[in-house]
Automatic annotation (TrEMBL), chain A:
Record-linked SUPFAM superfamilies: Thioredoxin-like
Protein name: Glutaredoxin domain-containing protein
Residues forming coiled coils: none
Subcellular location: Cytoplasm
CDD domains documented for this protein: GRX_GRXh_1_2_like (cd03419)
Chief location category: cytoplasm
Segments forming domain Glutaredoxin: 13-77
Key words, A-Z: Cytoplasm, Redox-active center
PROSITE patterns: GLUTAREDOXIN_2
Cytoplasm in keyword set: yes
TrEMBL record, chain B:
Domain DOG1: 149-362
Compartments where found: Nucleus
UniProt keywords, alphabetically: Coiled coil, DNA-binding, Nucleus, Plant defense, Transcription, Transcription regulation
Pfam family of the protein (one): DOG1
Molecular function in Gene Ontology: DNA-binding transcription factor activity; sequence-specific DNA binding
Protein name: DOG1 domain-containing protein
Family per record: Belongs to the bZIP family.
Record InterPro entries: bZIP, bZIP_sf, TGA_domain
Main subcellular localisation: nucleus
UniProt keyword annotation of DNA-binding present: yes
Organism: Leersia perrieri
Cellular component terms per the entry's GO annotation: nucleus
GO terms for biological process, alphabetical: defense response; DNA-templated transcription; positive regulation of DNA-templated transcription
Length: 104, 369
């Protein structure tokens, strides 16, 4: 949990991902497309990956996959669903701007 | 009993073997007339035997004629008479063989016909299942074997009917001046609720058989041409239907532009995620050395199976995009605009189906379709 929180605060936008996960790739691509320099933590390439995965699952609450999970400004935003909804309803870009991840 | 050249009345009962009397060679009328004379145990074999018996009898007319000939030509040697009788028997034998061969042909044809009928019935049933229409028969090869998929086809068929009904109601409501805002609002809600239901049944189908949903076999051919991850592409539909929503207020234009743009970005991201998934699976399929151990092969194949499971997530996420776009448009537009939008969308999707039907029914130059 600590490690997750610590890593999540390292950059304006942090994505917890897995190198083999197609959906993680999709979310990362979207953020890059928006001009964000997101920090990506590949859980399958990190020795503490399994622990972090468990922590993330608990934070998310629901039974879905632990990755991809997005943090903006150190705060938990959510999984793919949440990020996509936010973007379509126009809420993602302001959030990114507020966190200093984007310059208009 | 008269003998008329090769016409013999062979009474055939349609009982035990259920064989139709051979027509063409023997007069059909003869059979009708003689049916009453048929014995209860009569079969083809028996009738053939009777046929033979009659031939052996050498009908009286012929005998009389023969006798007369013999009388007339007293000098005619018994040899000639015998020879003629032998020729007669030979002709009769040949006739019997021809009859047997003909019946054999009929039997084979009958079997073939039964087989073809069965095949046709089966193909028709599968065509119904495979073409998302218990209504419109479209050309398509057999698809659904999975029970979840078959169930989905039936539900989808009902969904299409419901969508057409709702579109019609909205259209009428918009045309009538006395329709209230509340009535319109209700119809719009019903329409959106129907789309919500579609995404739910698609979710179940995707969990049951994701490749079936991805294939679009439950849609008509032209819809398949436009398919993107198991359905329509939100930004593309928005772009195409945009003119029918005019006039829009300034802030609405900004919002719709934003939605279109965001949707495009989200769609691109999902498409790239799909490409990544394909690459991951390809890597799994090429990871094991072709000359290596079967154990290593099995491990990588098992990985590939696991990776394929995430395809379900993509289908569900694509539907989530579609649904979110619809709801967001409802939020941006007024009730009346939303009603017009739903009519435009319902019409648009129905025209794809109509186009498929027209395409299937188009006149062709070559004989075989």
């Amino acid at each position: 949990m600590d490690r997750v929180t610590r890593l999540a605060a390292q950059k304006a936008v942090v994505v917890f991902s897995k190198s083999s996960c197609g959906m993680s790739h999709a979310v990362t691509r979207l953020l890059r497309e928006l001009g964000v320099d997101a920090g990506v933590v590949e859980l399958d390439e990190d020795p503490a990956g399994a622990d972090m995965e468990g922590a993330l699952a608990r934070m998310l609450g629901h039974a879905g996959a632990a990755v991809p999970t997005v943090f903006i400004g150190g705060r938990l935003v959510g999984s793919t669903d949440r990020v996509m909804s936010l973007h379509l309803t126009g809420g993602l870009v302001p959030l990114l701007r507020d966190a200093g991840a984007l310059w208009v | 009993m008269t003998l008329a050249s090769t016409q013999f009345a062979a009474p055939v009962r349609m009982g035990a073997y259920d064989r139709p009397p051979p027509v063409g060679m023997w007069s059909h009328e003869q059979f009708k007339v003689d049916n009453g004379q048929a014995t209860s145990a009569s079969t083809i074999m028996e009738s053939e035997m009777k046929y033979e018996a009659r031939l052996e009898e050498v009908p009286q007319v012929v005998l009389d004629q023969e006798a007369r000939n013999v009388d007339q030509e007293a000098s005619k040697s018994p040899d000639k008479v015998l020879r003629r009788l032998a020729q007669n028997r030979e002709a009769a034998r040949k006739s019997r063989l021809r009859k047997k061969a003909y019946i054999q042909q009929l039997e084979t044809s009958r079997l073939k016909l039964a087989q073809l009928e069965q095949e046709l019935q089966r193909a028709r049933q599968q065509s119904v299942y495979a073409n998302g229409g218990l209504r419109e028969p479209n050309l398509g090869f057999t698809g659904a074997i999975d029970p979840g998929a078959v169930n989905f086809e039936i539900e989808y068929s009902h969904w299409v009917d419901e969508q057409n009904r709702n579109t019609g109601e909205l259209r009428n409501a918009l045309l009538q001046a006395q329709t209230t805002e509340d009535e319109l609002k209700l119809l719009v809600e019903i329409g959106l609720e129907n789309y919500s239901r579609l995404f739910n049944i698609k979710k179940d189908a995707a969990n049951s058989d994701v490749f079936y949903v991805m294939s679009g076999m439950w849609k008509t051919p032209t819809e398949r041409f436009f398919l993107w991850i198991g359905g329509f592409r939100p930004s593309e539909v928005l772009k195409n239907l945009r003119p029918q929503l005019e006039p829009l207020l300034e802030h609405q234009i900004v919002s719709v532009n934003g939605l279109q743009h965001s949707s495009m970005q989200a769609e691109d991201a999902l498409s790239q995620g799909m490409d990544k998934l394909k690459q991951t699976i390809a890597d799994s399929l090429t990871a094991a050395d072709p000359f290596g151990s079967p154990d290593a092969y099995m491990v990588h194949m098992a990985n590939a199976v696991e990776q394929l499971k995430s395809l379900v997530k993509f289908v569900i996420q694509a539907d989530h995009l579609r649904h979110t776009t619809l709801l967001e448009m409802r939020r941006i537009l007024t009730t009346r605009q939303a009603a017009r939008g739903l009519v435009a969308l319902g019409d648009y999707l129905q025209r794809f189906r109509a186009l498929s039907s027209l395409w299937t029914a188009r006149p062709r130059d070559s004989g075989i379709s």
